[in-house]
Amino acid sequence: MKPKRLAIIGTGAVGQSVASLLHDAGHDIRAIISRDRRRAVSAARFAGVRQAATTDMSCVREAEIILLAVSDDQIGSVAAHLRRKVGLAPGTVLIHFSGIHRADILLGDQADGLHALAIHPLKSFPDEVVGVRALPGSPFAIEGDEELLPLAQELIQAMGGIAFRIKGEQKPLYHAAACVASNYMVTLVSVARDIMAACGFSQQDAFRMLTSLMKDTGKNLAALGPENALTGPIARGDVRTVEKHLRALEALPEDVGEIYRVLGRKTVELARHKGALAAEQAREILKALDE
Fold it and tell me: DUF2520 domain location, by residue (predicted)?
């Protein structure tokens, strides 16, 4: 791929990770832009392009591709500012990294000769150091101008990622799936930690004791898939165990029991799909969960 002139707006974990990987792949990072000069300098230093640090939005004019690594709620307004106030040359490509927004949010009502792409790494990383290590080998969703999807694929390949296509109208469901798999998993672990802590352990000790089990479950999921990785009382048809769980959870906040019941019902479905749970056992467990 011929090196491209790039400008990056935003200095969070995504912006810095992408800047570093694309610079290492040989692309020309003309500007790394932040409202805070110190953050711009820190991000540019991390990416290896100290001279690219700036707070001047007009520097994007030096680039043929502008990457908006800003929050979901800022994408539309930042793109509108670029179009209306900064002025962009026809043929400029705008790219955002949101999993929820369509690419055309970058264009507004009038394209004005501009092009739009959306690239979303299906990966969770808390900071730029982890991001640089985690993004290579990760899947990236791409969506936007059909003619420019090969460009998105090339940029992802430059970062070591694997591109897959998704339609704009599918993005809310796609993003919801990602949130359940990542964000809600974290929340679910916090609920499990709180239940364990109710046994008299500190939250720190409760979490530590659950860590090994979570790691094993993650390995089994990756190797076997949800159906074959499923174990536990519902998969075994242990109705009385589920009933004891429910009675014990009555001592905790009501929403904890609600979470157990909702997940229990979905686990019954999964166990039935796996073929591990007989119909009569499923009915008994569902009855207990619904009482």
Answer: 139-267
